[in-house]
Amino acid sequence: MNASSLQKITAEFAGTALLLAIVVGSGIMGETLAGGNAAVALLGNSIATGAGLYVLITILGPISGAHFNPAVSLTFWRCGELPAALCMAYIAAQISGGVIGVWITHLMFDLPVMQFSAKVRSGVPQWISEFLATGVLLATIHLGLRNAAGKVPLMVALIVTAGYWFTASTFFSNPAVTIARAFSNTFAGIQPADVAGFIVAQLAAVAVACLLLRRY
User: Fold this and answer.
1) Strand ranges in 45-149 using DSSP code E only, listed in sequence order
2) Whether the model pTM is above 0.85
3) Where are the alpha helices (DSSP H) in the chain?
4) Do residues 98 and 180 touch, judged by C-beta distance below 8 A?
5) Which of 9, 24, 90, 167 could cross-link with 129 by S-S, CB 3.0 to 4.6 Å?
6) Distance of CA 146 to CAs 76, 139, 152, 156, Å?
7) 10 Å Cβ neighbour count for 59?
8) Tell me: the pLDDT tens digits for 153-186?
9) Please, are residues 189 and 123 in contact by the beta-carbon 8 Å criterion?
């Protein structure tokens, strides 16, 4: 493995770990400070996630592309812009980085490191939301790169922030994030039994996106 590939994979690992620390940590902080007001907690969670994403994409984008998401990596692979071996390495780094990020967050907030979420996120409305969320995210990235490449970090940050509010699932749109959040019984969690449904919906959106990207 050459140094360039190692740097890219490390960036994907670190970026996804930090993303999960932001998502889960801001959820814990928001719920703690909101005094039972779920809307205030979600507002804090969404703003922190969007702000963190903007920074992460801006600083790590030049290194790895700042995917932080197997759905994104798969579409770049299908478009011929990411070698298959590197795509698989990205996905492994994203999933492992996400879980590590969650565990570090638990340590920061003095919570048990190993835990599983009990938060139910299941049903057709949730799956439709994840299909739509993933499709919207992929469209934002690929169309943004074609038409306004310099604004992609801001566009992704804004669509994710908005997505927390206009989707029933709160815009997971990311298999690595979905898996990692199953390991946190906090505001941002998802119970392990519901992970498969989310990932199937996300991968269905990837398949549709790949078909459209190949045509256009």
Assistant:
1) none
2) yes
3) 3-34, 38-64, 70-78, 84-108, 124-147, 152-166, 175-181, 195-215
4) yes
5) 167
6) 13, 10, 10, 14
7) 13
8) 999 999 999 999 999 999 999 999 999 999 999 9
9) no
